[in-house]
């Protein structure tokens, strides 16, 4: 069923939905951007139609609703602890197709991976339904079409925003009562069919090729350019690395809470083990790990898709202007070169 709502009707719909759902959408935060006098757009609870930023891609992804940058996992006193409580109210997230597909990736990692389900992710995910925001084409860092994440049918509502209001398609009967007497009109969502940017995903099935790629000189560039800040992975729609921190409430170090805090495989020391051992001690090593995880290892493990959804947020956030799409295209060229070399042997 489809509807066309003007701004007042859209506001009334949002107010009705908010009685039963916490509604999250991309929202603008004035003067909180990376540079002075710039804004940041990130997911937050929205109260009015005009709060919803539909015109441009958010700087940070929808994962921040399900896995906040920091969250209490348990509280402790001297001789006991109590698990933190998750939200009880159902959640509706307005998200573009790439962000919805990113949650399929995160669910693979958090739920049932290796026989273990992450309680903190699962208790959020169970509450979440998606309203798919039709994407107007993204920006010059997007390559969702190359990654096959430009489409989805995993949504309860589809929405196409304009300055005048919103067109809505209802696919989940649980939402039908919110539309009552609102004006019906046919609406079928459209998906982005082409991005300006195209990425060639390397074919890394051959173990000999992967071995040669590991020592390819292309990675050395990142020792000079990447400052290992981790901004790319914090902004990534699918990255899941975290660490834990204890927050002590007062003078007694035995009373406080343990928090899960977003971290990054790109930060030096993230993989440090007992005896000061590290698997990846240079920026080049860490970049290779990240890129191959996104464009080979995840798919080799789970089989259905690559981990990267082509949202381009990592490129957008990198202070050193390192582009994921240019990097992956360089990997593809290196792989072609390696294959040609191996064929001659
Ligand atoms: S690696 Fe970059 S383009 Fe891919 S999902 Fe993460 S942020 Fe988006
Ligand atoms: S690629 Fe860019 S954002 Fe990522 S760690 Fe390196 S410098 Fe930071």
Key structural traits:
345 residues; alpha/beta; 2 domains; 7-stranded mixed sheet; 4-stranded antiparallel sheet; 31% helix; 19% strand; globular; binds iron/sulfur cluster
Please count the helical segments: 11
Oligomeric organization of the protein chains = single chain
Globally, the shape reads globular
C-alpha end-to-end distance = 62 Å
Bound small-molecule species:
iron/sulfur cluster
User: How many independent structural domains?
Assistant: 2
Rg over alpha carbons? 22 Å
Q: Strand portion, in percent?
A: 15-25%
Strand order of the largest sheet: 1-9-8-7-6-2-3
* Order of helical and strand elements: EHEEHEEEHHEHEEHHHEEHHH
Helix content: 25-40%
Major beta sheet, specifics?
Answer: 7 strands, mixed
What is the mean predicted local confidence, pLDDT?
A: 96
- Low-confidence stretches at least 5 residues in length (pLDDT < 50)? none
What structural category characterises the helix and strand content?
alpha/beta
- Strand segment count: 11
